[in-house]
Write a structure and sequence with these properties.
Layout (H helix, E strand, L loop, with lengths): L28 E5 L5 H10 L3 E5 L3 H9 L6 H12 L3 E4 L10 E4 L14 H13 L5 E4 L7 H12 L9 E4 L18 E5 L2 H11 L6 E4 L2 H31 L4 H8 L25 H9 L5 H11 L1 H15 L8 E5 L14 H11 L3 E5 L5 E4 L2 E4 L2 E2 L13 E2 L6 E4 L16 E4 L9 E3 L2
Parallel strand pairs: 1-2, 1-4, 2-3, 4-5, 5-6, 7-8, 9-10, 9-15, 13-14, 15-16, 16-17
Antiparallel strand pairs: 6-7, 11-12
Helix pairs in contact: 1-3, 4-5, 7-10, 11-12
Bound molecules: nicotinamide-adenine-dinucleotide.
Length: about 450
Amino acid sequence: MQKTVDSAMVSSPVVDFSIHTNTTAEHVVVAVVGLGYVGLPTAVALRQAGHRIVGIDVSARRLDAIRRGEVELLSEECEALSRHLEGDGFVLTEQMQALDAADVVLVCVPTPIDQQLQPDPRILREACAAVVRHARPGQTLVLTSTTYVGTTRELLVQPLARRGLDVGEDVFVAFSPERIDPGVEGHEQLGTPRVMGGVTEACAERAEAVLAHTCKHVHRVSSPEAAEMVKLYENTFRAVNIALAFEMAEACQAYQLDPVEVTDGAATKPYGFLAHYPSAGVGGHCIGVDPYYLLGPLRERGRPALLAEEALRKVSGRPRHIAWRAHELLTRSGRPLKDARVLLVGASYKPGVADTREAPAVEIIERLRAEGAHVDYYDPLVPSLTIDGDTLHGVRVDLRGDGPNIGRGETVKVGSYDLAILATLHPGHDYGWIARCPAVLDCTYRTPGGKTRYLP
Ligand SMILES: NC(=O)c1ccc[n+]([C@@H]2O[C@H](COP(=O)([O-])OP(=O)(O)OC[C@H]3O[C@@H](n4cnc5c(N)ncnc54)[C@H](O)[C@@H]3O)[C@@H](O)[C@H]2O)c1
């Protein structure tokens, strides 16, 4: 019997690739929806493996940046990208209709939280709805965005069924979260295993055939739900351990011990311990965000995860604690915040990256400015920063008149600050000048500080 599939599907393709129907063929057309930190390197890896790529992003600005090569890729990925963009196997477009040309679709769009720390899956819903609208028999659809348990079935499998497309027979659906760790050598996408759960065995087979080109190996779990939970567990594990690292740092201080020395000592145990170090807080798109995709839904089900909730409170309160500590130190030294000059060192959320999304430094600066302090920042990777609608330019530090040349900010003398707060120090940059700062609040716990050194 002929199957009825509603007709939102294939119209005239906006991408001029011949349409493949056999997704187990060695080289296929892969559409990557969302070309951000995750989607873009994934698209490059798949093109390197010989697949043809339709890169789809709703942001014309992002697509232009990609065309100009102004993106946060490793240098070899950047070179590969520009080579591929010159050829005809890597197309960039804003049009969802380009999905029609794809044998495989990877969804890599953001999954943020709202002001109340609740999951905000609107972007994901919209992207999945478009993928479902354009789905056609033979396609393999893989969701990679971090999300709540049950998403793959709710946003792909059920709507596809409503269109008359049976998953496992007509189309193939899997969930496979991304583990990219931007800026950390040795954690490259291609060298990291990847978890995947298909809706059926056939779904898993087809998804694995493509995903194998983006990672070290594919570890299959029994369902999309298990794969969704794996990702939430991984990042909740990180958040809980980071909260514990903050607590242990305070415990070490109670005994005047160095938490880095203690953690390094514990890390010599070859099993049962995984080192986490204290810092100014967490940032980026993952650790401070993803666990809420577990905690909110669990609470709704009447099964709150109390330990993880408490850890998340500790993690999200860390920048507030650092700002309070700065306030306390300045007040104690007879300098009220409203008259104080503070230098925040390191605006990005972790060493080696320029990304300031959710960076603790941003909240610390906001809080100190709200109390009337004059706050400058120094970060060799971040030329400017928007705080409360104001654009701040990173200062240059005066080192015998030839300081690091960053941003358009003024050149400053470090001795003029009442307090320097060390949030993030990037590898390969000279921070010897910190020793000349009169007072340093060292949230890295790793420097000798300035003339006086304080810990959070
Ligand atoms: N950044 C990381 O280190 C990292 C690591 C592992 C997992 N993740 C997860 O991967 C997912 C993507 O994160 P990211 O960091 O790449 O996000 P991102 O913000 O860097 O990029 C997402 C891109 O998707 C585009 N987009 C938004 N809506 C779209 C739509 N409807 N159709 C097409 N494009 C759309 C945006 O314009 C943007 O360019 C998230 O779920 C995140 O939690 C991120």
